[in-house]
Amino acid sequence: MNLTFNKMWNKMGNRKKCYVCHNSFRHFTKFKKGARGINNFLRQLQMVGSDIDNYGCIYCGSTDRERHLYMFFDKLSFWDKFRNARILHFAPETPLSLKIEQLLPAEYIKCDLFPIEDWRKIDITKIDFEDNYFDLLICNHVIEHVPDHLLAMKEISRVVKKNGVAILQTPYSELLYSHFEDRNINTDELRLLFYGQEDHVRIVSKRQFFDELSQYFTMDIVKNQSLFSDEECFKYGVNKKEDLVMVINNKIKE
Ligand SMILES: [Zn+2]
Q1: Running DSSP on this structure, what letter comes out for residue 123?
Q2: What is the pTM of this model?
């Protein structure tokens, strides 16, 4: 079968549907080789993160983690929070950022440490904004790339207003008691082997991650399974184990 035929064949099906652009097809594209490419070490860690077998939409390019935010935001009527709000969005996903712009926020800053297009260059461990500036901050699968993630949490808590909200998704291990990282895992090859991606700097332990976040924020974890059926997760290509890591900035700051 040639590539064109494969694409046509995919578009003729309707097992899957993109929650963002509403197109139906047979299957999402995989991230790299999908779950088949995961090594035995990583398999044992009970990782919860991207659904790499159901990654990209063939029409709009949305990724599973982006579609998942759409689903959560719809169900929670979260979009209302964007109107007239000051928003900081790290590594902004294109369809999601277009939607946010349509909601007419007071200020919407798209940023990254390695910016493209109209993004601003911002280091998450040194956010060049005054205290209590943002109503909302989105950081969807970013923290696993940050060497000093505790400093990032501290900075997020500094720039988000009191009672402001941050969305802090990250892939994590449900098995590990503590984060796994080692200074000698310092090449692309080793990081790929032990962390699953060349640009990840650790395996995040869910237990430790939630514990660390709790030092700065009130946790408001929204369970995927409290909102969506397995059938919906299958259809829309999202990880049914991935919950929404929402935190509220209402702790006393030292
Ligand atoms: Zn789509």
Answers
A1: B
A2: 0.94
